[in-house]
Amino acid sequence: MKIFLNRYALIISMMFLITYVYASPAKVDSTDNYEEVKLLIDQKLEQYGVKQVLIVFDIDNTVLTSNVDLGGDVWYQWQTGKLNIKPTEKQKVKKCFYEDAIGLLYELGTANLTDMRLPEYISDWQNSEVEIMALTSRSSKYRFPTERELIKHGVDFSVSPLKSIEGNEVILNYKLERRLSYLNGVMMTTGMNKGKMLELILGRTGRSFKCIIFIDDSKHNIDNMEKEFNNNLDIDMNIIHYQKVINDRKKANGGEVLTQAQVDKMADDWDKLQKTLNEIFPGRDTGECVSPY
């Protein structure tokens, strides 16, 4: 009996050791080169097969970046006090920032790809039937201009999106603490925790993958994703902190993300835009938001 128990204990120990060796916590890497991301993804596809890998892209400063600072991610970060230079009281958009201002600038603004090779990379993976989705902090209200700029630049997340366990198209549109939606392979989360949002959609679709690759430019989102998946040893979770846009800005600005001259231009451009819109559309120039929600 004692020998049997010892053998049983040895088997359990070996099983634990094997699990420990082959499973590991979420891995976080940084890069400013999509060629490195492609090499990692291709390696994981070879290792696990296309049906066991999910690729998840952020959008802003990861797939697309604004042509100008006004309305881009740097403008939002500046307006919300997250950069080295803070907006003055005069420079702050106090009226309907979330209700009107952000959406207006998305509608008017255009974007560039962060890397010209991305459409080809994504298309090649999609043609191999790899499931690929976008996970953005943007609100569902901004879906049209978001998809417009993606499609315009050859990125269509509806081609091979995350599907249900039955293989059906998934559409989500409801409210938690804020509204979220999933359509055409793009999940819009209104700034909610991306780690929890990815867990949510995997649960709602009934899906599981041996490997997930998540690419995002935001350290906050990277940290949330790592925290959410760090203890899930069933998933080879690869989290990529993509830093090309921020690194390029720092190189151009002497080590800073934002300069005073850039701040002054954003503030001046916003004032000019508001003046022009209010002159042409006087119904906008009231004390209330244009958007009712």
Would you kindly provide a written description of the structure presented here, covering whatever features stand out?
The protein is built from ten helices and ten strands. The protein is α/β, with parallel strands linked by helices and about 290 residues long. Helix 7 crosses helix 8.
Task: Please describe the structure with a list of short key phrases separated by commas or semicolons.
alpha/beta; disordered N terminus; two-stranded antiparallel ribbon; 2 domains; 10 strands; 293 residues; Rossmann fold
Give a quick summary of the entry.
With 293 residues, the protein is of the alpha/beta class.
Indicate the topology.
Layout lengths: L1 H21 L4 E5 L2 H15 L4 E5 L6 E3 L6 H7 L17 H12 L2 E3 L4 H10 L3 E6 L6 H10 L19 E4 L3 E5 L2 E3 L5 H12 L5 E6 L2 H11 L6 E7 L1 H9 L7 H21 L13
CATH class category of the largest domain: Alpha Beta
Number of strands: 10
For CATH, the homologous superfamily of the largest domain is named as: HAD superfamily/HAD-like
Overall 3D geometry?
globular
Distance between the termini: 71 Å
In helices, the fraction of residues equals 40-55%
Q: Tell me the CATH architecture of the largest domain.
A: 3-Layer(aba) Sandwich
Q: Roughly what is the average pLDDT, rounded to an integer?
A: 93
Q: In sequence order, what are the helices and strands, one letter per element?
A: HEHEEHHEHEHEEEHEHEHH
- Write down the Rg: 22 Å
Largest sheet: 8 strands, mixed
Strand order of the largest sheet: 1-10-9-2-5-8-7-6
The unreliable regions are 1-5, 8-22
Coarse structural class = alpha/beta
Please tell me the total number of domains: 2
Q: What name is given to the CATH topology of the largest domain?
A: Rossmann fold
**Count of DSSP-assigned helices:** 10
Amount of beta strand: 15-25%
